[in-house]
Amino acid sequence: MTVSYSGVTKSYRGRLVLDDISDVVNEGELTALLGPSGSGKSTLLKIIAGLTPLDSGRVSLAGKDVTNEPARNRHIGFCFQDYAPFRHLSLRENVAYGLKVQHVPRAKRREQVDELLHLVRLEEYADQYPHQLSGGQRQRMALARALAIKPDVLLLDEPFAALDAQVRSELRTWIRSLQKELGITTILVTHDQAEAMEISDRIVILNQGRIEQAGRPSFVYDHPATEFVASFLGPITTLAGISYRPHELELVPATDADSYEVREVVRLGFEVRVVLVDGDAATWVQLTHDQAKQLNPRAGQRFGVHVREKNATAKSAAAADQDAVK
Amino acid sequence: MAALLDQAFKGGLGVFWSAATSTEAIDALKLTVVCSLFAALFNAVAGTATAYVLVRDHFPGKGILNTIIDLPFALPTVVAGVTFYTLYGPHSPFHVNITGTWVGITVAIMFVTLPFSVRAVQPVLETLTIDAEDAAATLGASPLHVFRTVTLPALLPSLLTGTGLAFARALGEYGSVVFISNNLPYHSQVSSSYIYSLVSSGQNASASAVAIVLLVLALAVLIASNVMARQLAARRG
Amino acid sequence: MRRPSLVLRALVILYVGALLALPLGFVFQQALSKGWGQFWSALRDPAMDQAIWLTTKVLVLAVPLNVLFGVGVSLWIVRHPSKLSRALDVVIDVPLALSPIIVGLMLELAYAQTGWFGSSFAYLGLKIMFTYWAIVLASIFVSLPLVSRQVIPLLREVGEHQEQTAATLGAKPGRIFFTITLRSIMWATAYGVTLTLARVIGEYGAVLIVSGNIALLTQTLTLNIGANFESFNSYQGFVGSLLLGVISVLVLGVIGIARHRLERKRHDSFV
Question: What is the pLDDT tens value at each position of chain B, 237 positions in all?
């Protein structure tokens, strides 16, 4: 089902949280709502779900206007950041809740729940209670519970935020493959740009209640529309007042006109950052492990810094911003 | 509903003043305040000690001790009252007689107010990790010093509110006190029983007057203890 | 120092024992001092009989009403905050610190035939003061905050996410309430109910005033005990006390269990 929302505006306690937001999510796609805290992305998700009322605008699911429909009629699946397990119910009963609401007969219910538990690989924990499960397990339970009612849309609110790094990346990949397999339209809220880049078909970047840019992850990364998007999606470095992606600059032998002194060399595992200064100007360049081995930069040495690829995009974005400022 | 009270004493402000400041009323008030204060403060100390034992110490039967603390909440005040009277009164098996004395009244109030201090301090003690105390000990502080400088400041806000509540409650305590207090006007009458005697003789206006004084006092104590506690807590950050 | 010294432990036990346990034990001893036969016939004394019956009748009405009110108010205050509900939150704790005599006085002034509310009732030919209804009213008033004081913090802690999730799964508000909300506050409510029970059974001062203390008519069990002692009928008084004492101990036991369950539940959900 396609999800579309238009003109969505929401204020809370005098503060404008969402400002005339519109977008369309295509069927079967996973869209990431990306943005810093306070950008309004969780609020937008809850508005789509029907859990929070909007001040103005409309929300449509599969072409049908659901703006005035309560959450229970929208046929969506929602996962909270804290998973919101029903603490007094067992895993099995949690997953079965939606089916019970639909008055699915007991035998069929049990069958479907077993299927779902198998899907999320939690069969052996079926009779345990949420407090006995780990964070990752509760996450999968929340997912199974939401999927039980066969929703048209899946809404995930920062589903991986509370997990440790290892579990997070495994779960991330797993949910993505599950989503593709089921073909279910999904909207995922996150503040982690790496996560959004990795698993989404489309990224929507929100900042202070407005959509800064929306599009395919690789496109948005290479062609950021604003300075904000550029810096939010990945590290940037500046040279002569213009922003670049770190891999776009390279170190070359110093010349009289072009000479920077190495201030510091930071080794981050597979990448190496070289921080350089020239009087007041400072910049940094990213080298791969091998490049660093070859060049062997050390503090005090002098290098020149060139733009490696004639990549006009980062340049033009920053330049456009600067023009706007002037 | 409480507004009704005002209506009753509006039967003349002059009446109010004379009733409230009658010697009987003042004597009763003095007695009530003194006993309640003493009991509340004593129990603040005893309650803290009890909470400390309950939280930090472990021995068989501790659970029973913990449950018994709630007895004054569960036991009807009148039962406590008559029992105290019989235990420590004219027919006492211990051959003591503290009826009509402030001691007797204070004991009765101590019974009623112990749970307030214990239960106020207990949860704070439980969340207070032993680490801070250990840290102080490694720095060479004696156990008493540790208690005074580390534990006590942390407990003070809750202790203050708990004691304030206990005191306010004690001011109005009736059932457990009235029997052992002997009810002699001017000598051993607690404010609450004075009010009752006024009510049962139909002097509602006077009764309301004295009641308002008591209420205002209790309210003042409650607000004061809450404010102080909050300030203390804020200062600790 | 990690563990309190043995001396402190002994002191505390001694203090608590002398102050709390001793009186209770004494009640037991006194009531049974004349043997079982006397005990049972004393229980059947018509005044006591009536008193037991009255107290039970009061419980039957006062406790459920209080629970309904307590849970309702808690839900309102936590889930639908407004200026009014915030004011109520503050006001609701007042009965706890109020002297029972003062409560009795207030109610009497309000509901007597000439009072603010009482006059309206009198107009309708209904008498409130000095009847069963007055006792029920007083009982509800003094135990008003007991349920909500337990439920409100728990509701705040649990949060709305579970209920919202249930909504997305298709559940109607009624269903959400019974399957999710109620279950989450269950033990807190049980604890509050137990406290209410104890408070209503044991209320003395307020009921003394509003009931008129007429033996065989409007005398609750606590009043009965008091009256017995005042007329030097101490044995009878102790029998009644024992009855209440036993009930208190049972209630204490339930309180202990409920509190334990409540704390364990809280601990689990933080894991």
Answer: 544 544 555 444 555 566 566 667 777 788 788 888 888 888 888 888 878 777 777 777 777 777 778 788 778 888 888 777 777 776 666 666 666 677 778 888 888 888 888 888 877 777 766 666 677 677 776 767 666 777 777 778 888 888 888 888 888 888 777 777 766 666 667 777 777 877 777 776 677 777 777 878 888 888 888 788 777 777 665
A77 contacts in chain C (CB < 8 Å)? 168
Whether residues A88 and C183 touch (CB distance < 8 A) is answered with yes
Give the predicted TM-score (pTM) of the model.
Answer: 0.73
Asked if C271 is an interface residue toward chain A (Cβ–Cβ < 8 A), one would say: yes
> Among residues A29, A40, A50, which one has the least CA distance to residue A203?
A29
Which of C102, C106, C204 comes nearest B77 by C-beta? C204
Q: Which amino acid is at C76?
A: W
Q: Which residues in chain C are contacts of B77 at CB distance < 8 A?
A: 100, 202, 204-205, 222
Distance of CA C117 to CAs B175, C106, C121, C210, Å?
28, 12, 7, 14
Boundaries of every domain in chain C: 1-31, 35-270
Q: Hey, what amino acid is at A235?
A: P
CATH of C35-270, one of 1.10.760.10, 3.90.950.10, 1.10.3720.10, 1.10.1740.10: 1.10.3720.10
Q: Which residue positions in chain C have pLDDT lower than 50?
A: 1, 270-271
Beta-carbon-side half-sphere exposure of residue C72 (alpha carbons within 13 Å): 7
All residues of chain B having their beta carbon less than 8 Å from the beta carbon of residue C244 are 75-76, 79
